Amino acid sequence: MTFDLPQGAIGALLGPSGGGKSTLLEIIAGLQAPDSGEVRWQGRSLLGVPPHRRGVGMVFQDYALFPHLNVFDNVAFGLRMARRPVEEVRRRVHEALELVGLRGFERRSVTTLSGGEQQRVALARALAPRPSLLLLDEPLGALDRALRDRLLVDLRRILRGLHQTALYVTHDQEEAFTLADRVILLREGQVAQQGTPRELYHAPASAFVARFLGMENIFEGQVHTREGRLVVQTPFGVWPYPQDAAPASGRVRFLLRPDGFTLSSGASVSLQGIVREVSFRGARQRALVEVAGQRIQADFGTRQALPVAGTPITLGFEPETAFQVLEG
Question: Which class would CATH give 211-326?
Answer without folding.
Answer: mainly beta
